[in-house]
Amino acid sequence: MTKNKHRRLIICIVLIILIALSIWSWFPVVERVSLDLIDGDSKNIRVVLITDLHSCYYGKDQNRLINMVDDEKPDIVILGGDIFDDRLKDVNAKITTKRLAEKYPCYYVSGNHEYWSGRIDEMKNYLEEIGVNVLDGDCKTECINGISIDICGIDDPTYMIDRDWMEQLDSAYSQTDDTHLRILASHRPERVDVYEKYDFDLILSGHAHAGQFRIPFLNRGIFAPDQGFMAKYINGVYKLANNSTMVVSRGLARESTPLPRFFNHPEIVVIEIE
Questions:
Q1: Where are the alpha helices (DSSP H) in 45-111?
Q2: Which of 20, 72, 83, 88 is the most exposed place for a label (fewest CB within 10 A)?
Q3: What are the extents of the domains in the chain?
Q4: DSSP designation for 79
């Protein structure tokens, strides 16, 4: 075999492997996390975290995604931003949120793409009309299995100065009770230095898309927005310096992104609070 033929063969093999990995990484999965955050002998609380849907298609009437959620029987659903997109039509986002809101208590915070669309108010109004709790600097209390949970949320800071964003966070935190389980939904995982100033038990984020190309074993992303290369906060559970726990979802974006995912299945995250 000549050197040129050998080189072409290697290139073909590499391309086939990359295509196979991309196809494999297209299929959504359920990631389960167990967290010991409740004192006493209370029953568990199950939270499903959905982020970065970007109005992508998951079967007729979004059945693939809805069935994944239904199989987990969540107590609450957190919609962690970029459920809508700034380029794709709203139809898949609307179907998903409406069907979920008919079954479960749902809480939503905005993402950067929803602001980029220029229609953030329209999107929030729609969600409120179908029964989703829109959190933008406030907090709602749920009682689940005898446990009081303060669910707080803040807007994505895309077009906000830091002072206004911090005011939202201060406002949400001021409405919590230190005897309750305190959860913060915030689209951005990279703002750890800010989150560590508050005593939230659990912080739920997305945004990073796991760096699009996730490096196995290292759990780093090649590049994530607002974190740059070799991004750290991209996927899974992180223990912060103040003992808060942050869970970051890889999200559900597929056809909305120009690059394929590698070692990076789209996901919903099921958080079992024990």
A1: 63-72, 91-101
A2: 20
A3: 3-273
A4: E
pLDDT tens for each residue of 185-227: 999 999 999 999 999 999 999 999 988 888 877 889 899 999 9
| pLDDT higher than threshold 70 for residue 103 | yes
Query: CA 16, 19, 22 angle in degrees (round to 5)?
Result: 150
Which amino acid appears at position 226 of this protein? D
Q: How far is CA 121 from CA 102, 127, 136, 148, in A?
A: 22, 10, 11, 30
The neighbour count for residue 243, using CB atoms within 10 Å, is 9
CB atoms within 10 A of CB 69: 21
**Which pTM was predicted?**
0.91
Cα distance between residue 204 and residue 153, in whole Å: 10
> If we measure between CA atoms, which residue out of 130, 116, 22 comes closest to residue 79?
130
Q: Is 205:248 a contact under the CB 8 Å cutoff?
A: yes
Start-to-end Cα distance in the chain: 61
Main-chain dihedrals φ then ψ at residue 257, nearest 5 degrees: -105, 145
Grouping H, G, I as helix, E, B as strand and the rest as coil, residue 101 is helix
CA 165 – CA 171 distance, rounded (Å): 10
Q: Does domain 3-273 have CATH number 3.40.1480.10?
A: no
Strand partners, 184: 152, 203
Side chain identity, residue 196: E
Return d(Cα 33, Cα 271) in angstroms, integer.
Answer: 5
DSSP 215-238: ETTTTEEEEETTTEEEESSSSEEE
Give the whole-angstrom CA distance, residue 114 versus residue 120.
6
* Number of helices (H), then strands (E), in the chain: 7, 15
